[in-house]
Amino acid sequence: MNSNFPLNNFCLDAIRKMNEYGAMRVPFLFIVDFEMNKPIVLSTDEISGNNIRFAIGEKEVEPIQKKIHFKT
After folding, report:
1. Residue 23 scores a pLDDT above 90
2. Stretch 34-53: mean pLDDT
3. Over the chain, what is the mean pLDDT?
4. Is the pTM of this model over 0.90?
5. DSSP string of 9-69?
6. How far is CA 40 from the centre of its chain?
7. In a domain, 32, yes or no
8. Which of 43, 39, 48, 40 is CA-nearest to residue 22?
9. Angle at 72 between CA 49 and CA 29, to 5 degrees
10. CA-closest candidate to residue 15, choices 53, 32, 35
11. How confident is the model at residue 5 (pLDDT cuts 50, 70, 90)?
C-alpha cells in the first residue's frame, strides 16, 4: 500500500472485506465518500435489504418512485 495515504480503521476494514469477498468470488459493491473516511462494502446479498438499486448490464432501469433522503 502507498504509505503517503493515511488509512483509518474504516478503510482498513473495507479493504479486508473486499479482499475476503474477492477471495471467495462473492460479488460486492463498494462506496467511498468524498473524504474517503467511511467506505461501505456490501455483498450483493446485503444490498437487496438496504434500498440500494443497481442493474449491471441493463440498458434501462425503472425510476425510483419514492423520495430519497440523504443523511448529513
Report:
1. yes
2. 79
3. 79
4. no
5. HHHHHHHHHHHHHHHTT--EEEE--TTSSS-EEEEHHHHTTTT----SS-S--PPP-S---
6. 4
7. yes
8. 43
9. 35
10. 32
11. low
